[in-house]
Amino acid sequence: MVEKGDAIGTWSEIGYTGPGSTYSNGSSSAIFTYVGSSTVDQQWSVTTKQKLNDCPKDQALAWKLGAKIDATSSANGQSSVLYKAGGQPACYDLTPSFKQLTSGRSYN
């Protein structure tokens, strides 16, 4: 966003590499598969490979994080990003601090 001013960069554009073995726009570890996407509400998501307490094995979108340009700041000649954290309740509840990633900068 800093370079383009009006768009959120992809994983490769921002230099992000997920944990484990990497592949085009994603990575995989023994427990999770991480995926990057251009979908606003799930630009970063995790699928489980193992059962974790009440979070089932192979749960798609167990955790997800979205980002978008704040239209209000953009209209004022500034650029800032709003975020949205989410996921499946049985998985999301395992990481209560995950919601804090968007504290004060979230969108609905």
Describe the fold and architecture.
This protein has one domain (11-97). The protein is flat. The mean pLDDT is 85. Helix content is 12%, strand content 28%. The protein has 3 helices and 6 strands. It has 108 residues and is an alpha+beta fold. Strands 1-2-3-4-5-6 form a 6-stranded antiparallel sheet.
Q: What's the quick description here?
A:
The chain is an alpha+beta fold and 108 residues long.
Give me the secondary-structure topology.
Blueprint: H1 11-14, E1 21-23, E2 26-28, E3 32-36, E4 44-48, E5 63-69, H2 71-75, E6 81-87, H3 89-92
Antiparallel strand pairs: 1-2, 2-3, 3-4, 4-5, 5-6
Number of structurally distinct domains = 1
Q: In angstroms, what separates the terminal alpha carbons?
A: 20 Å
| H-E order | HEEEEEHEH
Strand order in the sheet with the most strands: 1-2-3-4-5-6
Average predicted confidence as pLDDT: 85
C-alpha Rg (nearest Å):
15 Å
Strand content: 25-35%
Estimated helix fraction? 10-25%
Largest sheet: 6 strands, antiparallel
- Residue runs with pLDDT of under 50 for 5 or more positions: none
Q: Counting H and I runs of at least 4 residues, what is the number of helices?
A: 3
- The count of β-strands is 6
Shape: flat
Please state the structural category. alpha+beta
What brief labels describe this structure?
28% strand, 108 residues, alpha+beta, flat, 3 helices, 12% helix, six-stranded antiparallel sheet
